[in-house]
């Protein structure tokens, strides 16, 4: 069999390793309902991904779909929106932990709030830098 999509195959091999690790852990410590569901979903998804990686026509269809302008636009909008949501969540968690730490007088919780604030600041700086870059180069 010829491999038509090597990247997809490599990603799938990592997923297969995770599923195998879950199976080994289940055999060793006992299966739970959650682990059985994850194993079944993993096997089904991996089988589909392997089919695409080894199928010439499916690989071609997937690559054409990735290159379509509308799909690229949707992906860009989704990433942009998810980044905005993550920033909002970071800000809320920062406020929550700082306020809880000050009210309860627990420095560890306040420190967690400061860490969330640092992550929020880093993401805001990254967003500003990328915006400036694309404003100047596009």
DSSP strand content? under 5%
Average pLDDT metric: 90
Helix content: over 70%
Oligomer: single chain
Counting DSSP E segments of at least 2 residues, the number of strands comes to 0
What structural class do the secondary elements suggest? mainly alpha
Largest sheet: none
Rg (C-alpha, Å): 22 Å
Order of helices and strands: HHHHH
Given as residue ranges, the uncertain stretches (5+ residues, pLDDT < 50) are none
Q: Number of helical runs?
A: 5
Q: Alpha-carbon distance between the termini?
A: 43 Å
What gross morphology would you assign?
flat
Topology:
Layout lengths: L5 H24 L3 H22 L1 H12 L1 H36 L2 H31 L1
Helix pairs in contact: 1-2, 2-3, 4-5
